[in-house]
């Protein structure tokens, strides 16, 4: 089988899927060097930089570059072809020996590069998926998506609330509900509250030094909260990369900011900056009125629960985060939460259409 010096794979990768990755891997196997050119139009809703990063992560041995291409698509117009080629040649910046493609236009693209066309699985037999299908229904195509794209598309649902208001119970029940649906949903992830683990370790360390220590002896510094927020986000991101189209989180870094206020009486700008880096799709706020306070050795503020519920609600509203106050017994809360999450999923992912192709 012939090998080539410099190969090219070109596409929108809007978003990348298993068929794209098969194409790139095939090209890498047959080329000394491979350039992957990601072309995005300004009207599309996934940023070019994200697509370049996703492809580079999946194919670290390739040179992945990006270009904005807002030229209308008309495969029958030589002038339009040449306008596209100017963008392609400028981005690639060097001669190409082979163009690897699964598209009908591959032969003309290769001819204009003065390169040989290598056609790879044009009928999509190995991976029956397309960018159009993914954009229409990501959940139905989930098995064909890589970790970075799954993390970007997963609908993130956060359950948060004051001490002893049932956040862990509701988040666990919610994750179990979606896993029980089977299929792609069987991999639904649940992210534990890292702040609780941190608190348990902090109390254990205090008791190792002084066996009689209790939670009342524990104090926090402001510098600890950004550590908790970053670790919470890291565990959320890890779970999003391997789970289903929905991810259930027992608190998040946004909530960490309220906990900082509860313990230290002020906001923490570093925690707030961390929380702003990750988008969440829905917050479920557990009401304090329906759940009796239970002291499990790491709680000491039953009188603060109404205040905390209010602060969560105020900040959710002030920052424009989509949220719902969840009340009632365990079964009622779960039913309310499932209805809200199902409503979120029913909205779809709302990809913008790419530039239309002239016929």
From TrEMBL:
Pfam families in alphabetical order: AAA_28
Stretches assigned to the NadR/Ttd14 AAA domain: 156-333
GO molecular-function terms, A-Z: catalytic activity
Domain of life: Bacteria
InterPro entries per UniProt: Cyt_trans-like, NAD_biosynth-regulator, NadR/Ttd14_AAA_dom, P-loop_NTPase, Rossmann-like_a/b/a_fold
Protein name: Transcriptional regulator NadR
Organism: Streptomyces xanthophaeus
């Amino acid at each position: 089988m012939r090998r080539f010096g410099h190969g090219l794979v070109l596409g929108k990768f809007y978003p990348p899927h298993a068929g794209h990755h098969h194409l790139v891997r095939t090209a890498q196997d047959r080329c000394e060097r491979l350039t992957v050119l990601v072309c995005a139009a300004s009207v599309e809703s996934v940023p070019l930089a994200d697509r370049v990063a996703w492809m580079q992560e999946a194919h670290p041995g390739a040179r992945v570059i990006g270009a904005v291409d807002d030229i209308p698509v008309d495969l029958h117009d030589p002038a339009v072809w040449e306008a596209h080629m100017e963008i392609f040649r400028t981005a690639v910046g060097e001669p190409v020996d082979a163009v690897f493609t699964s598209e009908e236009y591959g032969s003309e693209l290769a001819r204009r590069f003065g390169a040989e066309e290598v056609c790879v699985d044009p009928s999509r037999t190995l991976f029956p998926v397309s960018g159009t299908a993914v954009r229409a229904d990501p959940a139905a195509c989930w098995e064909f998506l890589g970790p970075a794209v799954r993390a970007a598309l997963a609908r993130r649902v956060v359950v948060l609330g004051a001490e002893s208001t049932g956040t862990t119970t509701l988040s666990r029940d919610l994750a179990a509900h979606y896993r029980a649906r089977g299929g792609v949903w069987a991999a639904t992830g649940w992210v534990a509250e890292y702040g609780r683990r941190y608190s348990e370790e902090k109390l254990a360390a205090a008791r190792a030094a002084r066996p009689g220590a209790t939670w009342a002896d524990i104090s926090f510094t402001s510098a600890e909260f950004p550590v908790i927020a970053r670790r919470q986000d890291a565990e959320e991101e890890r779970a999003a990369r391997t789970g289903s189209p929905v991810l259930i989180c027992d608190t998040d870094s946004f909530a960490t900011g309220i906990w900082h206020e509860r313990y230290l009486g002020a906001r923490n700008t570093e925690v707030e900056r961390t929380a702003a880096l990750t988008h969440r799709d829905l917050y479920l706020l557990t009401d304090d009125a329906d759940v009796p306070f239970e002291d499990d050795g790491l709680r000491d503020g039953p009188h603060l629960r109404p205040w905390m519920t209010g602060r969560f609600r105020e900040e959710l509203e002030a920052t424009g985060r989509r949220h719902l106050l969840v009340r009632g017994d365990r079964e009622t809360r779960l039913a309310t939460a499932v209805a809200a999450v199902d409503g979120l999923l029913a909205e779809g992912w709302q990809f913008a259409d790419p530039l239309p192709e002239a016929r």
